[in-house]
Amino acid sequence: MKSFKLCAVLLLMTAAAALSMAAKLELFPTFHSCSVYFHTEIPKNCSITYREKGTSKWLPAFDPTWDRSYGGKYRTSIVHLKPDTEYEVLATASWGRQKVRESAVFRTWSDNVPVAKRIVLTQKQVDNGYVIKDKGSPKGWIVYTAAPGVVVKGAGKRQALLLDKAEYVIVENMVIRGGDNNAVVLNDCKYVRLRNLDISAWCDPQNYTYDKGTGRMRNKAGRHLANKNAVYLNGGFGQVIERCYMHDPLLSSNCWRYGHPDGPQGISPWKPQSTVIRYNDICGSDLKWWNDGIAGTGNFDLDGGLNKDCDVYGNFIAFANDDCIELDGGQQNVRCFRNHFENSFMGISIQGCMTGPSFVFENRIVDLMDELGSRSSAFKTADTWVGHYAASYFYNNTTDDANAKLRLCRNLRIVAKNNIMEEVVPSKIPPFPFLGIKSENNLVKVKNAKKEIQGTPSFVDAPRGIYALKAGSPGYGKSVAVPGLNVKNPDLGAPRGVELPYRPFGLSLTNGRKALFTVKKGKASAPVKFTVKADSPVEFEVRKSLDSDWYDVTPAKVSLKAGEKATLTVRVKPEKMNTRINYRSVFFLRTADGWSRPLSVKAVTDFKYPENSAGKQVFKVTGPFKKVSGGGVRFDDKSQKFQFKFTLPEKSGVVFYMDVRALEPIGQHDSICLGVNGEEPSYCPFKGISSKGYTLMQGRSYILPKGTHTVTLMPRESLDLRSVVVLTDVRATEFR
């Protein structure tokens, strides 16, 4: 018996020694964060702490996630670090008598790097685009810039600026115009920084035109507009995109009404590593929309999208017909924090979390709305295509929309704390219990869990864009501690007193960042004033999109000393506001070196869309059917039919839309029968019509010759029908 016990002890000691020998600690720092990978076979009881070198207090990293894949590994992140600073990390794991312990030291990246050479480009050098292949070194970076007034031109070229396998290169203070596919491409680069680039006028209007039948851009081969980017990252390591202004592409994305959006994007990464995207203005406009502001590629690959060890912070992203940002892909220590997102169909997507963990914290997502006013949710998650051990963490995010929801998944570990949102939606199918899904202490308007705080947030001044909680509001002072977020934040939502998007420079907005106007009978509501304060000397000028000529901001340029304030006045111009109901824009107070503060402007007019217009003919449905409320008829007598005629001046694609209302209870297969030019009326279904009001729903499409055509409608199921809209241009029914 003693011999058996001795053997058992020796086996345990041998196993523990083997585990200790096998343990390995890998660290991948950026400016303010560090990814931690702790390789060990011990699957629980792991602790990862850190401290600034030379100090005594150890702080916790985010809770590590265990992944048995690829030999056993804990993954987590450390955030809110200082640049160019040394830190120590201590990782321990234990299970019974087995214990491993590893320590290591890292230094965060520096904002300032040694420069070996500066190259100033002339206009002649960049008239037909430019290619950089230089390789600097850690001891001597190469800086490219341009002389004042120089524009890097890429019209008719695949891209305006290409960095091809460049290393230790900075490209800064340049104006980039053009590029048929992308404006700027980084191809397999190492330690390259793009800083303060003004990028616009890319896409390919020579080969893509608007298709009236589909509402999308197509080329001569009939292909949709491929995603074309201000900046495209093809692999690479250690790349930084900062303080850039991406705006005014030459073409616009379609919205979801016409299928998945395709078109221009701000940044598109293809599997890079250790990427930092910070302090950028990625702003479409009311007439030029992104597909995604930052898009994923390889969304469901283990190393897809931003891949691993990435920071996205301090960015402003707006006007996306799909997502402001897709984190989809690897999401292996991908961190998205302290950004501001607005005017989009969706806020932040993590639906392809393939390895994880990803961390989404201290962001603000407001004013969700795509090109035509549709919205989905502040956060996109999905039960399909996730990694076996993946996890995503949501902490202290602020939202303010009816669709600001976080849907929990049955097969993805989601942990959510201290967020302000409309609702946390449980999975319809019971989740796998071992995942450790946890949602608690979130302020929600729709309560469906005991651990949430139910209530409506009272913001200081939401109409002016101030989303800090008022004293006494639900959630005020109720934030619980999150290991890893070691900067104190007393409230739910984004940190009190931190201006989002987070940008550490000397200009602050003191009385809001959003202006709302009305225009009625040609007269606008009163001008709106903003006050800015200089915490240090600063000069800035007002920048806005090319289609924002319907308002002015004065003064357009300001110079302030430390402690000085200035007042900016925004006035709308009714004479320029006669084409749509809603007008949206963002202007920026940008400094010469690329720092900025964004301010949003919205106006609602009394514009009336004409019933008939080019590409659109409307036919009111009348007897022999019974009239009902709202100006329609009860379309239910199968012995009757309704006919009308319309004329085409030339051969055209034609789409029929019906203005319909479902009856209670809502049917599963609401439909009518439709026929053209004597054909027997046949099944024409509608998907998702409402019983609360009339909805314009797409019916059937034809290609018809020049001349007069007869349309026959017959009831198939009971519903209310008000009118039939004949379109030769599907966008003729858009009410913006």
Q: What can you tell me about this protein's structure?
A:
The protein is mainly beta and 736 residues long. It has 4 domains: 2-107, Immunoglobulin-like; 236-246 and 274-370 and 382-504; 508-605, Sandwich (Immunoglobulin-like); 616-733, Sandwich (Jelly Rolls), CATH 2.60.120.260. It has 2 helices and 61 strands. The strands form 11 sheets. It has a 20-stranded parallel beta sheet that branches. Strands 44-43-51-50-46-48 form a 6-stranded mixed beta sheet, with no helix packed on it. Strands 52, 53, 54, 56, 59 and 61 form a 6-stranded antiparallel beta sheet that branches. Strand 5 and strand 6 form a beta hairpin. It is globular. The N and C termini lie far apart (84 Å). Residues 1-21 have low confidence and may be disordered.
Shape, per Cα inertia axes: globular
Sheet with most strands: 20 strands, parallel
- How many helices? The count is 2
Derived from helix and strand composition plus strand pairing, the structural class reads: mainly beta
Number of domains: 4
Uncertain runs: 1-21
The tally of beta strands, per DSSP, is 61
What's the mean pLDDT score?
91
Radius of gyration: 29 Å
User: Which strand-content bin applies to the residues?
Assistant: over 45%
| Estimated helix fraction | under 10%
- Distance from first to last alpha carbon: 84 Å
